[in-house]
User: What shape does this take?
Amino acid sequence: MPGKSLQRYALVPDQIWDGTADQPLSNTAVVVDETLVDAVIPLKELPTDLERVTLEGCTLIPGLIDAHVHYSPVMGAAMLAGGVTTIRDVGNDLEWIINQRSINGTHGALGPTILCCGHLHDGPEVYWPRMGWANPTPSALRSSIQRHASAGVNAIKLYDGLTPDLFAVAVDESHKHNLFVTAHLVKTSIEEAAAVGVDGVEHLSRCDVAWREAEDEEDDILIDILLKHGVSLDPTIVVWDRLGRIMEHAFTKDRRREWVHPTHLYIWDNYRTRLDSPDSRRRQQISIGYLKRFLRRANEAGLTIGLGTDTPFPHLVPGFSVHDELAMYVDAGFTPVDALRSATSVNARILGVQSTLGQIAPGMVADLVAMNGNPLERIDDVGNVEMVIRSGELLSRGYLLEITRDSFGEGPVDPVTQDLLEVTDAGPKTE
Ligand SMILES: [Zn+2]
Assistant: This one.
């Protein structure tokens, strides 16, 4: 059975959460007209001749957004099944991802809407041969960013090897093209990055105080810098957690692995972090508690906090890893509603698509997800996806699982899978 297309219909769940409000609405329906939300109206005003899709026991929320993905087509249907209807790809081959963005734009049932950054802009040497791009000089970096801007990327991603001088050049050039700049920081500190105008930071990288036992006053100094410069966070705590606990048996028995391509499972089960010393894994595990403390305090202070995962790194099931990161936020001390805002309306704002995505309101794209239960009270219910609506098209879980299984016959040959395979098969780190 294909995805179901109706021209005009009403969704009637138990309750609707619009992506921003503190409370959900009950006795309310969402009217979908082709690809858009036409109205959010009281049930009693619903025309009787309008076709109804009843979602008994369900909460309807905006489609989830994963702001940190390295996309492979074998992840597309699983992402939709997890309720993720939009992703930001933050590192891939430029031409490949631009082409994939338009494929997903016209064949919505194959995967989420893609916003992309193109290549990771690295320093003079690249870490990832296909996802990364080497920039030996300031002029090479400027022309690389110009090439990305003319290709039509949605944002720019800066990577590990950029020293502070190169980093400043990259932000300057990106802003000339009105592009949002987000960064995985290693050689440039968060203070240096904020001072030259970085817009977002991935992984809490170089937020050094967040990684250790710290006094509130120490957290506050960093939080104030981020607030002052308007820097948003995309913490991706789940990837750090899974890398630190990569050997944990429970993950290899996760039933959600049925959504993961065998080649990606091979990468997970043989990823070279497994060969790190037990001490380095233990340090990583300990840091997770500190990251959660910092995240809670940053949220209380009013920082803009989005949500991403770094899928397909080990033990991050496409789409479903967003549920895991949401659970991390709640464990850190967020209310479920606050966590869900990060994955919907706040992410939409960070990605610059708040006028069309991230909320349920008239005129917005009909990207919606219905889950059994009430994730506003019990965040785990976010995993009970019953129905996904992608640009107005109704996609059942069974149909999406079928597409996923069909894709398992072929080995993925995309840049992300190839880069991860090379790292996996290279054995222990040499540095
Ligand atoms: Zn990443």
In short: The radius of gyration is 21 Å. Residues 77 and 400 are 5 Å apart (CA to CA). The chain has a mean pLDDT of 95. The first strand starts at residue 8 and ends at 16.
